[in-house]
Amino acid sequence: MRILVVNPGSSSLKLGLLDGEDQTLLDREHDGTGGRIDREALEATVREAGVVDAVGLRFVHGGARYSGPVLIDAEAAAYLATLIDLAPLHQGPALEAYEALRRLLPQTPVVACFDTAFHHDLPAAAKTYPIPAEWRERWAIRRYGFHGLSHAYASRRAAELLGRPLSELRTVTCHLGSGASLAAVEGGRSVDTTMGFTPLDGLVMATRSGSLDPGLVLWLVIHGGLSAEEVLDGLDRRSGLLALGASRDLREVLAGPDRELALGVYTHRLRALIAAMAAAMGGLDALVFTGGVGEHSAAVRAGVAEGLGFLGVAVDSAVNAASGDREISAGGAAVRTVVVSAREDLEISRQVRELLG
């Protein structure tokens, strides 16, 4: 089965064609503009791909309805459209990609694979917000979590690298990219995560603030005179690294004059939430870094490890500075630390094959 993987991100469109052995036959990435996909690029890739037996399409949000991949039809598409306001930078482009694929490949099954699905069965204590019950019930408000495709793959790949059964491991997976989140993965199952009802919660990100005092948001509206739209734009598109170091690119921040403050705030939040994820599992066996920053920033990994020695985390500086999928633990460290290349395409392919048999 030749599977075309379509991954619309907040700022890019990633396209890949995998054969029956999950070998990459085609790999393309195109810049996105204004939350819209590049239809011409998608059409050109479909023509170049030739035979496509199925399409795996990444959706950030599956809502309360979907706990696994689903074959998209008109009813599913209509439901997914109701979730656009929960993930506006991703959900709209994914639906736009689906409409284009329906025209380009009318006889080819398109399978939606959801970032929220991995976290769908979080324990009640982890997913329930202590807000009025009528709010939770009326609007299906809960912690949904995101980056599930990446967390699922990274936890399995780490177990392979360590030669341990996934079922025996308590793992914290760190997906650190433009968006960033952690997951507490116990025995292969997500039991806690840092993103919440929307992808704005949790860690400091490229342009998103991460967790804030909700009273601050209310103060900005009631006393600061900002509209809800202005606050959303500020927290979603003008905060995070961009606000701390004048760039959304961590490499530029680390080379700039605001390096100390920006890296300090970034790693302070990261260490604190890694410890929280470990607490949710009663301990930690493996710490996994993935995503653009997680894979390529030795400085971030070293800074995190330095502050988590009390948990048993320590990294070897020489191996930490290398590249590729590898263990970077220092000798004798109680917690095994691993770097894994983000391969959401392989997770999407796996889910498509399982669903279609």
Shape: globular
State the name of the first-level CATH class of the largest domain: Alpha Beta
Rg over alpha carbons: 20 Å
Order of helices and strands: EEEHEEHHEHHHEEEHHHHHEHHHEEH
Helix-strand makeup class? alpha/beta
C-alpha termini separation:
10 Å
Question: How much of the sequence is in beta strands?
Answer: 15-25%
List the helices and strands and how they pair.
Blueprint: E1 3-8, E2 12-18, E3 24-31, H1 39-49, E4 54-59, E5 70-71, H2 74-81, H3 91-104, E6 110-114, H4 124-127, H5 133-139, H6 148-162, E7 170-176, E8 180-186, E9 189-193, H7 214-222, H8 228-237, H9 240-245, H10 250-254, H11 259-281, E10 286-290, H12 291-296, H13 298-307, H14 317-320, E11 326-327, E12 336-339, H15 344-356
Please give a structural write-up:
With 357 residues, the chain is of the alpha/beta class. The chain has two domains: 112 residues, ATPase, nucleotide binding domain (Nucleotidyltransferase, domain 5); 175 residues, ATPase, nucleotide binding domain (Nucleotidyltransferase, domain 5). The chain is built from 15 helices and twelve strands. A six-stranded mixed sheet has the order 3-2-1-4-6-5, sandwiched between helices. The chain has a six-stranded mixed sheet with strand order 9-8-7-10-12-11, sandwiched between helices. A hairpin with a 3-residue loop joins strand 1 and strand 2. Helix 1 crosses helix 3, helix 6 packs across helix 15 and helix 11 crosses helix 13. The protein is globular and about 55 Å long.
